[in-house]
């Protein structure tokens, strides 16, 4: 099969197309003929050598995909054979075939194009777990989301609005602010022109938000806490601004704030299976009914994965970037 591999740690140019053996599904796995694969920030971190795959995972990049099930392991349900699925993978989606735990798959409903199905799992699993399971989001609350036009940001907007939240986002330009509002955000703050802490306090009448979803960390950590309400929660899912932060612990105690965070890829297969089941029960009906769709940016051929990474790292995208794998020969 054709796959895109990481030749050595480095920039997008180290992504190279090569011939690889088709993986064989394990006992709890299915083999999917990949139609499309989503491109995500962890792929770029892995490529740069900053986010190594967990033990036993494929060395190929790619954490989500869609396609047709063409083989099954001994413990996988036989009725999956021939069906169309999208899946959260542990790596290996930048390839014509990918083996994945069948419990991490979701059925592609009628009316959902495979290209959009491939853009759902990574951001949906991440946002659902961090906003609703760890962040304890509730309808009627207000949420602050940084990077409002990123894959994570756009999914947070859509899920937040689907479940009755007010969503405030930050973006780096007027055009991106407008795009975020068009996607459903109630307010968009241009962080290059406004102090987002003051802006959030103003938008909430001085109260602050109940929840903030942050991918920056570093100096943003205390600033996030400064615009979170009493009993509010800060959930950090990436450290683009640095892994270390100084915070006012006394103020956090007085405000009874909660600071938490997580990474998804190293979690156990059983945990991801439970997460997939929760999504299947609580979110997937909205996908099946057409109420929830990913915000789509651009589709690149698999062999142009380097160009896809360049676009993502330049911050030019609004929504999800996807690789067309089925078009490869």
TrEMBL record:
Q: Residues in domain Enoyl reductase (ER)?
A: 10-323
Keyword set includes Oxidoreductase: yes
Q: Does the keyword NADP apply?
A: yes
Q: Which keywords fit this entry according to its UniProt record? A: NADP, Oxidoreductase
CDD domains, from UniProt?
Answer: p53_inducible_oxidoreductase
Position of the signal peptide: none
Task: Report the domain of life of the source organism.
Answer: Bacteria
Q: Which SMART domains match?
A: PKS_ER (SM00829)
Q: Which InterPro entries match?
A: ADH-like_C, ADH-like_N, ER, GroES-like_sf, NAD(P)-bd_dom_sf, Quinone_OxRdtase_PIG3
The record's GO molecular-function terms, alphabetically, read: NADPH binding; oxidoreductase activity, acting on NAD(P)H
PANTHER family under this entry? OS02G0805600 PROTEIN, QUINONE OXIDOREDUCTASE PIG3-RELATED
> What is the name listed in the Swiss-Prot or TrEMBL entry for this protein?
Zinc-binding dehydrogenase
**Protein's organism:** Croceibacterium salegens
């Amino acid at each position: 099969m054709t796959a895109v591999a990481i030749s050595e740690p480095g920039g997008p140019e180290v992504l190279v197309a090569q011939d690889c053996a088709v993986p064989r599904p394990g006992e709890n796995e299915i083999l999917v003929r990949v139609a499309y694969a989503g491109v995500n920030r962890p792929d770029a971190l892995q490529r740069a050598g900053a986010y190594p795959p967990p033990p036993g995972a494929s060395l190929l990049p790619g954490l989500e995909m869609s396609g047709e099930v063409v083989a099954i392991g001994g413990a996988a349900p036989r009725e999956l054979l021939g069906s169309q699925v999208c899946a959260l993978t542990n790596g290996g989606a930048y390839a014509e075939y990918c083996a994945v735990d069948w419990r991490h798959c979701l059925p592609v409903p009628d009316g959902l194009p495979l290209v959009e199905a491939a853009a759902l799992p990574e951001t949906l699993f991440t946002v659902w777990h961090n906003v609703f399971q760890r962040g304890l989001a509730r309808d009627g609350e207000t949420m602050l989301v940084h990077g409002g036009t990123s894959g994570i940001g756009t999914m947070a907007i859509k899920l937040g609005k689907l479940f009755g939240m007010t969503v405030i986002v930050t973006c780096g330009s007027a055009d991106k602010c407008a795009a975020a509002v068009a996607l459903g955000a109630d307010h968009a703050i241009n962080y290059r022109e406004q102090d987002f802490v003051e802006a959030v306090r103003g938008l909430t009448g001085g109260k602050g938000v109940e929840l903030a979803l942050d991918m920056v960390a570093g100096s943003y950590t205390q600033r996030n806490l400064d615009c979170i309400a009493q009993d509010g929660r800060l959930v950090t899912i990436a450290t683009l601004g640095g892994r270390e932060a100084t915070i006012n612990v006394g103020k956090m105690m007085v405000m009874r704030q909660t600071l938490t965070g997580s990474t998804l890829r190293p979690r156990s297969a059983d945990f991801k299976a439970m997460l997939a089941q929760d999504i299947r029960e609580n979110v997937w009906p909205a996908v099946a009914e057409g109420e929830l769709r990913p915000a789509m940016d651009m589709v690149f051929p698999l062999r142009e994965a380097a160009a896809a990474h360049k676009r993502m790292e330049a911050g030019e995208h609004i929504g999800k970037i996807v690789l067309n794998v089925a078009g490869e020969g």
